[in-house]
Amino acid sequence: MPLSDATALIVAAGSGTRVGGDIPKQFRDLDGISVLARAVLPFGGLVDEVIVVIRPEDRARVAAILPGTTLIDGGATRGASVRAGLAAVKTVRVLIHDGARPLVSAALIGRVLTALNDAPGAAPAVPVTDALWLGDDRVAAVQDRTGLHRAQTPQGFDTAALRAAHDAFDGDAADDVEVALAAGLDVTIVAGDEDNIKITTPGDYARAERLLGHRPDMDIRVGNGFDVHRFGPGDHVTLCGVRVPHERGLQGHSDADVGLHTISDAIYGALAMGDIGQHFPPSDPQWKGTNSAVFLNHAADLARAQGYRIGNVDATLICEAPKIGPYATAMRERLCNIMGLDIDRISVKATTTERLGFAGRGEGIACMATVTLVKS
Fold first, then answer.
1. Within 10 A of 122 (CB to CB), how many other CB atoms are there?
2. What is the DSSP code (8-state) at residue 113?
3. How many CA atoms, within 13 angstroms, populate the side-chain half-sphere of residue 24?
4. Half-sphere exposure (Cβ direction) of 260: Cα atoms closer than 13 Å
5. Phi, psi (5° rounding) for residue 72?
6. What separation in angstroms does the CA of 81 have from each of 28, 60, 74, 97, 215?
7. What is the per-residue pLDDT across 231-261, written as a single tens digit (0 to 9) for each?
C-alpha cells in the first residue's frame, strides 16, 4: 500500500562485465536470489511503485525475475538511463538506486525518505575514516579527509527538480547528486551503511556473499496459516488472486479468497503479530468486498518493515472442485506480483480429502500455507 508518494527507480542497464562470469552482475545468483532482485525487494511497501531501467535485450529475463514490475529501456549512458526512467515516474519524489547494490536495507531507505520531507535532495554516505594518499605507484602527497564521504544509493529527490536538473546537465555524471548540485539543489547527507556495497569486481561479489552468510542478526522464522470458506451463490471463486469459474462462489466478508487469507495469516504468524482478523476485523464495514491482495500486501509490508524477506511460500488448496491444476501457474504468478518474489519461491498445489469431511462433501474450500521469513 502506498506510503511515501515516492517511486524507486532502479538503474540496471549496464553490461556488468567487470565482476566476471558469463552473465551481467545484476543477474548473478547471490545466496539464492539474483543481485537485481535483492536490490529491488527492500523497496516493497516503502514506495508507491518500482521502475527498473534495463537493457532492451534483458527485458524477458528481468520480467521473469520481477514479474509485474514496470520496465523501461535505458540508454547508452547512466544519465540517459536515469532520464528515461524519470519520464515514467508519476510520484512527487523519486529514489534512484543502483541495481548492483543488493544489500540495501529498509532502514536506510527510510532515512532517505524522511530527509526528503525537509529538502529537495537526500543521499546516504559513509564518512571516510582511512588516511588518503595521492599518487600512482608511489605516494606523492597526503589528502585531507576532513568532510569526505563515500557516496551510496538510493539517492532521493523531488522528481520535478531532478528532471529539470538532468535536462540542464551537460555530459554524464558519476551519480545524481552531481547533477543536482550542478542545478543548485540542496542535498542532505544521511547515514549510509557499510554493508550497502556496490558490486563492481569479483572481490565485491565475494564480500556480499560473506556479509549474507555471516550477519550477526540472522533470523529465520516459519509461520503457518489455515482458513476455510463455505460455498454460496455465485458463478466463480477467487483463489490466490485468480478468478476460477465454478458453479458456486465462496462466502466471506471480503472477496473470500481463502488462498490469500491463509498466506497472510502465515506471515502474521511468523511475525507473531496475530491473524488477519486482528488487522482487518470482519466487523468493520470498510473491508466488505475488499480485494484480499490488500491483506497480503499489508502482511508482506509488515515483514519487510521489520527487516525480513519472504524466503518461500507453500500453499495447499483443499477441495473436490473446482480443479486447481489449470490455474496453479497463474496463481503463482499473481502471488509473485503481490509479494515481489521469484516464481521459484512460490508453490501452489491442491489436494482432496477423498470425499471425507466438509471439503469432501463439496461444502467449501480450505487452504493451508507455510511461509518462511529470513532476516539477514
1. 25
2. H
3. 16
4. 30
5. -125, 135
6. 21, 18, 4, 12, 33
7. 999 999 999 999 999 999 999 888 999 999 9
Closest listed residue to residue 224, CA positions, set 335, 334, 359, 372: 372
Count CB atoms within 10 A of the CB of residue 273: 15
**Cα(70)–Cα(321) distance, integer angstroms:** 35
Enumerate residues 6+ apart whose C-beta is below 8 A from 16: 23, 24, 25, 26, 27, 100
Whose grid coordinates read 472477496?
255
Sign, CA dihedral 65-343-222-212, equals negative
Q: Is the pTM of this model over 0.85?
A: no
In one letter, which amino acid is 63?
Answer: A
Per DSSP, the residues of 283-318 read: T-GGGTT--THHHHHHHHHHHHHTT-EEEEEEEEEE
Q: Rounded mean pLDDT of the chain?
A: 91
Position 17 pLDDT exceeds 70: no
169-178 confidence digits (pLDDT tens): 988 899 999 9
Q: Is residue 241 within 8 Å of 260, Cβ to Cβ?
A: yes
Distance CA 238, CA 305 (A): 28
Burial 70-103 (b: 16+ CB within 10 A, else e): ebbebbeebbebbbbbbeebebebbbbbbbbbbb
Q: Are 82 and 68 in contact (CB under 8 A)?
A: no
